[in-house]
């Protein structure tokens, strides 16, 4: 049961970190408004695809995981 407990603990910490990012995302105005993000607004419909933001977050997380792995 110890490995399962570790997995639950790490998952909880990751979820808490993501929650904090969502709370403080308003203070960082450029997140979600990068030039590669796609926003389509119609009368009763809004489509938002954060393409550039997703790529940026992926690169940052990859670098962090790579640094902590060493």
Sheet/helix structural class: mainly alpha
Helix content: 55-70%
**Largest sheet geometry:** 2 strands, antiparallel
The pLDDT mean sits at 84
How many separate helices? 2
Total domains:
2
Strand content: 5-15%
**Backbone shape:** elongated
Distance between the termini: 28 Å
Which oligomeric state applies?
Answer: single chain
Give, in spatial order, the strands making up the sheet with the most strands.
Answer: 1-2
Rg over CA atoms? 16 Å
Q: Strand-and-helix sequence, N→C?
A: HEEH
Number of strands: 2
Topology (SSEs and partners):
Elements (H helix, E strand, L loop, with lengths): L1 H23 L13 E4 L4 E4 L1 H19 L1
Antiparallel strand pairs: 1-2
Task: Kindly describe this structure.
It is a single chain. The chain is mostly helical and 70 residues long. The chain folds into 2 domains: 1-28; 31-70. It has 2 helices and 2 strands. It has helices at 2-24, 51-69; strands at 38-41, 46-49. Strands 1-2 form a two-stranded antiparallel ribbon. Strand 1 (38-41) and strand 2 form a beta hairpin. It starts with a helix and ends with a helix. The model has no long low-confidence stretch (mean pLDDT 84).
Core attributes:
single chain; 70 residues; mainly alpha; two-stranded antiparallel sheet; 2 strands; elongated
Q: What's this entry about, in short?
A:
The protein is mainly alpha-helical and 70 residues long. It has two helices and two strands, in the order H-E-E-H.
């Amino acid at each position: 049961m110890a490995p399962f407990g570790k997995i639950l603990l790490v998952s909880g910490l990751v979820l808490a970190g993501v929650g904090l990012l969502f709370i403080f995302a308003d203070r960082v105005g450029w997140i979600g408004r990068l030039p590669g993000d796609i926003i389509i607004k119609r009368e009763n419909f809004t489509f938002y695809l954060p393409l550039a933001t997703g790529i940026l977050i992926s690169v940052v997380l990859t670098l962090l995981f790579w640094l902590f792995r060493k």
